[in-house]
Amino acid sequence: MIAKKQKLSSGLTVTSKVFVRSRNGGATKIVREHYLRNDIPCYSKLCHKCHTILKPDSKGELPRFILSESPTRLEKEGSIHYVVVDTNIILHCIDLLENVDCFYDVIIPQTVLEEVKNRSFPIYQRIRSLVKSDEKRFVVFHNEFSESTFIARAKNESSNDYNDRSIRQVAKWYAEHLQESNEDIKVLFITNDKDNLQKAKTEGIVDAYNLTDYIEELPNADVLRDLIPQTSNNESFSSSDANETSYPEYYSNSRVLGGLKNGTLYQGILNISSYNFLEGTVQVGAFKKPLLILGTKNLNRGFNGDAVIVELLPKDKWREPSTTIIEEEVIGADDNADDDGDEEIEFINDKERRLLAQEAIKETTAATSSTDGAHSRLQPTAKVVGVSRRSWRYYVGQIAPTSVSKDHDTGNSAKSCFVILMDKVLPKIRIRTRKAKELLGQRIVVAVDSWPSTSKYPQGHFVRCLGEIESAEAETEALLLEHDVEYRPFSKNVLDCLPKEGDSWVVPQDFETTTKRKDLRDKLVCSIDPPGCVDIDDALHAGILPNGNYEVGVHIADVTHFVKPNTALDSEGASRGTSVYLVDKRIDMLPMLLGTNLCSLKPYVERFAFSVIWELDEDANIVNVQYMKSVIKSREAFSYEKAQNRIDDPKQQDELTQSMRVLLKLSKKLKQKRLDAGALNLASPEVKVHMDSETSDPGEVEIKKLLETNSLVEEFMLFANISVARKIYDSYPQTAMLRRHAPPPATNFEVLNNMLAVRKPSMPTISLESSKSLADSLDRCNDPKDPYFNTLLRIMSTRCMMAAEYFPSGSYGYPEFRHYGLAVDIYTHFTSPIRRYCDVVAHRQLAGAIGYEMLDLSHRDKSKMELIVKNINKRHRNAQFAGRASIEYYVGQVMRNNESEQEGYVIKCFNNGIVVLVPKFGVEGLIKLELLGDVNSAEYDEDKFELKFKDFNNKERVIGVFDKVKVDVKSIKDEVTGKRKAQLILK
Amino acid sequence: MELYSPEGLRIDGRRWNELRKFECRINTHPNSSDGSSFIEQGNTKVICMVQGPMEPVLRSQSNPNQANIEISITIANFSTTERKKRLKNEKRLVELKATLERTFEQSVMCKLYPRTVIQVNIHVLAQDGGLLAGITNAITLGLIDAGIAMYDYVSSISAGLYDTTPLLDLNTLEENDMSTLTIGVIGKSEKLALLLLEDKMPLDRLESVLAIGIAGGHRIRDLMDEEVRRHGNLRLSKVNV
Amino acid sequence: MILSPAERSYLYDSLIQKPPIRPDSRSGHQFRPLEAKTAFLPSSNGSARIRLMDGSECIVSVKAKVVLKSQESSLIECDIDVSGNRDDSNFVSILKFNLTNLLCQNFPMDVLQLTSKYSYKLFIDCLVISHTSYPLTLLSLATYLALKTTRLPLLVSDVDDSEVEEQPTFSDDWDKSKYLKEMVSSNSKFQPPIFITLGVVGDNLLFDPSTEEEQVLENGLILSWYNNKVITPISNINLASNSNNSNFKGMDPILISKSLALLKKYCGEIVDALDGIIEHDDATEGGIF
To answer: Residue limits of the PIN domain (chain A) (predicted)?
Structure first.
């Protein structure tokens, strides 16, 4: 709408934006004021004029000029240049924009930024951080608010056309504006839209390029050419790729919205089975059981983790969840990327059909043999009809050797090939590269660009190469990438926030007069940690008070003294959320200087600490508790073993050892109380990899062993966490940073209890009434002949539990704060601020609660706390997965040299394989039917969790869940995914 | 959308300390009221009509020492983007009314008009943030038009806090996302006749928000004064002829 | 203003003359001069304001909402707010009933149709800021103007959704929105109904009686005009709602047919005049006062 413009006395011009918002089926007329101004600078250091028009912000600071006075020169033209990009360039080529080899001095029109934000929030955030970091000299130019670049929407102009025109206007204005200051500068307009290019030319924008042409203009075009994403140029895939198959088109947006509203369509997160890549489930609120999605056609281009829209299939197509293992490599690994078109006219290829048929046979036999049981396991099936949010990110994989055709050596033109991803629930990705041959056998990073309905596989582009497969560096980087762990070194902005003294920082001597800290240097504080620990975040002391009670103190590294809110350091810590521990590497949440020195409660030096000091009676009841910021001086740093030895050694009678004995005594009482209340003792097969210190090759694998001193420290940390949780909840009832652990839903234990009832009838079932009864029933499940059975059961129970989560206290009612595993009513994390961000927040809140300093706004605001919590929950989970993956990798490396026969336990049974857990290595592996014996003789009894088959000696064997078996363990490299994993062979 | 971009621009293109378009007229309803005004603050539009000072209908309403100010507020169903039927006794409205009555009992020289009532009728035609500020300014102008003695202008404006940046004169989108402080400044002084904070604001930031609020209030006062003088001159020119 | 008995008698005597002598020297079929402004509420689909010289003023807004037809009893809803009167008072209820009834029964509802399941619903909100005479005509003329300037967003999704549920989606371009008159079938004209009030004194019929005239009328008639003809119902009413009118009495039925003839003669002009206001009203022109 062409609204009238009105000049105001303040120098602004006001007009209005009128548009229709159709949301939830409504059509609302929206009118917004829109102010135009003439004080928006061009941010170019070349410009002589814009310095006169600047206006300060509320802190009195003037905008800085970013665009360089000597930007890169174009290869052919020889002139210096800036670049204006359009929305699709950003959406599709964000990797290239972030690349350090190109795209400096980039102007992003506000119109583009807003479109990007509406289309993809993550990419918007990446652009914003590019702009913020200054390194690549990106600027946002608010063209819609500038009098010189604002244009009114023309009659009957679509909003896309209008936006394109606005963007062109920016390029035009910049070119003219800078021309006046420097004649050598060119402002290039980059778009891949042919129409837009054409219009630019007719409007007199001479320097309009598409991305490919632009890259060719750069001196380093050779390096960059392969990085151009596929969707960004039209001729990228040869016509033979098109129409190789056809997926059903997604429903239109209005149909999806209508369907969601009237309940015929559902929305949920697609979860592809890790045993069968043709089977996915979507949990939607409307049904108790998740919806099954079977086959590629129904999965309809959904990726694991996508938010999808699904529609139910008719009842006669409802199925039981499959009991077959199907991995993608079985089916399509040897496809040639360029000509798989011919036989794909029919949707299911033969291999898929056979597997599905096999499924169908099983289905029918199961239905006839068992009279009624089968039907109750029927699950509704559905098909994907839309994707509301893609989970696409960087993926790590390797080029499938078979997809690189022989004629690849001819010529320098780009050829299609497939990249098989490490994550086997994801399909392979088709990329185009000139370097396929060189990249064979390398771990590479790719990004997905699109998945047209005519293409059997998604299309993507090469991002970079990590190194040779199975090299420790490449694999470590791969798993960090796969788990979205930020591992780049800290930026200069972040490091600038550290104390200037660096390593020579010491506790200032005048702290008693300048701060409210308590002097606790006379207390006999010591720390107990794993051997070789350098980031010591906790220390303890104990003593006997004159009244016979005990004084116990827990001292935590005072990280928040160095990490102040609203600094670059703080936001980096907040976004990393946690340190990540890999077998051979630690990815720190905070820079080394803090973690291993300034904050670390090293012995013999004075350190700032946050202390919790209790007065406890003989039975470890709290008489009194105090919180304070303090200065301590640790007397000694023990390893668990050393501490244990010192306590156990009757000759040691010094004060420090005495106090440790007090701590041990009290910790046992605390532990007993906890167990009485119903705290769980669950197990996971934790192993530790010993590294050969010379070669840093992994040597052997060992199950972690626990000493009394381990639990000493653990008990007091739990104790401190609980006390702090109560205190901050008291002061900040809406925003206190807490941690909860929900009780497991009964359905999670259904299968396990079924297995127990069928396979081990003598065992009591696992009770879920409370954590206490669960703990008790687990205690009762003892097999006198096999002491490991109890541990096995605990491992399997752990997998049925809910994950604990961080939350701000306002999001749940008090009864739901409960931590099920620890059996306490309220809990938080306070004791490891060096490596967890939750603890940093808890520290700040506790400091606020005791009136030490004002609590920052962001920790008093519920919505901001929600954001923090969401991120750290995700980071915490990813860190755990990354840690496990790292162990898995190294265990694989260890076994490479140690082939051996081991004891294992069957924990799952399928109709074509079994899953065995080997406690010695903490590994579990799938043994497929082909490796067990005669495929055709196999019979699977679902009700008994048993698989009957003839082995290779033609001997009849029956194997069921919980059976103890002997297996040969060796490590093999999977040629398709390049992943090394444990191969188990049944003896 | 970015409420306040790193480049220092707000969602509608203003900077942190800029007012929206402020337009006002007095004597808009000469035939149906003793004093009237119409103000537009951004897209917020308010009509004010003043009757009185006059004899109250009921004896009980009269105060022998001073005038009673009665304010009734009608918020049109169509004033917001989504139409909403509003009840007269809605809690928010009753509170608004009480706040305004208290503000103007202090600002009008009520002692000059004992045993009378001053009836103020407010019609809110469109809302786009700063409702209380808009109504307050409209009443000030309406009372001036009615020739009722006041100590000085009460000019009102809202301000909020985005992170650490104070923002002046919030529109609806901004108001929905941050806590809002509305103040009524007396004349060119730094005295406040009205201060209302919805939600909460950290004490250590309040001063900066108040500071831009007061500066904004002074600018509003000047704009209102200009209109009063313009209208006064117009009347005067008619008398002289 | 309430008249004294002497004033009343004087006024009655002059009105009963042939032709009547009206205090503001209007002829019997003349309306009071009015001033109107349309499309001035930014967030409404249509709006109008009418002011009379005596300070009477009425603002009408039309807002459209997308609804499921099956869940609505009516596609038009009117709400009236008269300053100084309670919402549940008789006075307001009668006005509301009359206006709702008129519009619901005489409106080309098919212009609101979106799909087989969805339709627009119009919310007509009238705000009488001040009034002296009975405000029904004022209301109805303002409503006429508001409806004539009402624009509805353009539907871009499928019209047929009887088989598969689709949520309607609309073009975000307000310039693409359509006036109601553009949506009626080509051979008919979009002309919302209006009310005309007539005062009866003797056998004189007076258009648009003023508040003073109302106090001496022998009877009042409310007629409605739609599609170039008078439509039912025709009702009579004591227009002087807040003063007792001792002249009020029964009426000669012949006057009804006379009134029909009068409307036929003059209503076309009235409607044309209103349409003229819209044409000359520049929507982009500044403030409303």
So the answer is: 81-198
B31 interface with C at CB cutoff 8 Å: yes
Q: Which of A17, A23, A35, A734 to mutate to test the interface with B (most CBs of B within 10 A)?
A: A35
Chains with 3 or more CB pairs closer than 8 angstroms to C? A, B
* Whether A142 and B5 lie within 8 Å, measured CB to CB: yes
What letter would DSSP give residue B129?
Answer: S
Q: What are phi and psi of A75, to 5 degrees?
A: -60, -55
Residue in chain C closest to B32 (alpha carbons) equals C55
Instruction: Pick A64-232's CATH classification: 2.70.98.40, 3.40.50.720, 3.50.50.60, 3.40.50.1010.
Output: 3.40.50.1010
CATH architecture of A394-482: Beta Barrel (2.40)
Please report the DSSP string for A557-620 in residue order. Answer: E-GGGTS-TTSHHHHHHHHH-B-EE-SS-EE-SS-HIIIIIISS--BTSEEEEEEEEEEE-TT-
- How far apart are alpha carbons C122 and C272 in whole angstroms? 24
SS3 A176: helix
DSSP C191-212: ---EEEEEEEETTEEEES--HH
Distance from CA of C83 to the nearest CA of B (A): 8
Tell me, yes or no, if C61 comes closer than 8 A to chain B by beta carbon: yes
Residues of chain A neighbouring C44 (CB-CB closer than 8 A):
29
A406 touches chain B (CB under 8 A): no
Q: List domains and CATH numbers for chain B.
A: 22-240 (3.30.230.70)
pLDDT at A814 over 50: yes
Residue A13, strand partner residues: A7, A36
pLDDT tens per residue across span A196-215: 999 998 888 778 898 888 98
Is A585 an 8 Å CB contact of chain B? no
Quick check: C169 and A26 CB within 8 A?
A: no
Return the closest-CA partner of residue A332 out of A236, A249, A433, A244: A244
Q: What is the ipTM of this complex?
A: 0.94
Q: How confident is the model over A880-895, as pLDDT tens digits?
A: 888 888 887 887 777 7
Phi, psi values for residue B235, rounded to 5°: -65, -45
Domains of chain C, CATH where assigned: 7-156+172-280 (3.30.230.70)
Question: How far is it, in rounded angstroms, from Cα A774 to Cα A781?
Answer: 11
Class of domain A253-389: mainly beta
Which residue out of C51, C127, C131 would a mutagenesis test of the B interface target, given it has the greatest number of B Cβ atoms within 10 Å?
Answer: C127
Q: Is the dihedral of CA B50, B55, B56, B61 positive or negative?
A: positive
Task: Considering chain A, tell me which residue range(s) the CATH 3.40.50.1010 domain(s) occupy.
Answer: 64-232
Q: Helix, strand or coil for residue C255?
A: helix
The residues of chain A that CATH labels 2.40.50.690 are 253-389
Chain-chain contact of C169 with A156 (C-beta, under 8 angstroms): no
What number does CATH give the domain A899-986? Answer: 2.40.50.140
Q: What is the pLDDT of residues A897-947, one digit of tens each?
A: 667 788 888 888 877 788 888 877 777 777 877 777 777 777 888 788 888
What subunits touch chain A, counting only 3 or more CB pairs under 8 A? B, C
How many Cβ pairs closer than 8 A exist between chain A and B?
76
Tell me, yes or no, if B23 comes closer than 8 A to chain C by beta carbon: yes
Indicate the residue of A58, A128, A145 with minimum beta-carbon distance to B13: A145
How many residue pairs from chains A and C have C-beta atoms closer than 8 A? 85
The pLDDT > 90 percentage for chain A reads 25
Look up residue A849 and give its two tokens: 């609660």
* Chain A: closest CA distance from residue B228 (Å): 17
The position carrying tokens 């993809």 is A120
Tens-place pLDDT, residues A580-598? 988 888 889 999 888 888 8
Selected for mutation to probe chain C from A2, A14, A17, A20 (highest C CB count within 10 Å) is A20
